[in-house]
Amino acid sequence: MxxxxxxxxxxxxAHRAVLGHFASGVAVVTADGPxxxxxxxxxxxxxxxxxxxxxxxxxxxxxxxxPLVRASGVFCVNVLAEEQQSLADAFARWGGxxxxxxxxxxxxxxxPLLEGACAWISCALVHEYDGGDHTIAVGRVTALRAExxxxxxxxxxxxxxxxxxxxPLAG
Length: 171
Known about the structure:
Number of strands: 12
Helix content: 10-25%
Radius of gyration: 18 Å
Largest sheet: 7 strands, antiparallel
Distance between the termini: 39 Å
Shape: globular
Low-confidence stretches: none
Strand content: 35-45%
Number of helices: 3
Strand order of the largest sheet: 3-2-6-9-10-5-4
Mean pLDDT: 91
Structural class: mainly beta
């Protein structure tokens, strides 16, 4: 019989390694900024409430884009499709024109809808909470749409993944 783990400080590397076993989707949160469209990559997107319809995501406190999204008051969560890894990488970087060469159109609230995303959720920012080195943002859903023929981009154990193709032998 092994001894139970001893409580103590959790190291960042261990935290990242263990929690990396939880697979998540990948989204790009976009807004209409003062000088044009802005966006950031996010894995922390979740559905929060059905009544009222609320979502949440958590941008890093170090994000240079989050203050621009916050200031607009409205944003769009673009759930990336499995073939959109390059968009996830581009919107995760600091600086530069992240929208260069990206096909998009204005959504119902003006925030960019990225072409090819498997879903988009247009929101109004309603709350912000302290989340340690992140901000927990809560949005009220104002419009949404999905493209059922597209599969989502998945992030698991530090890398992108695709949904597994079902085996023809599976029942």
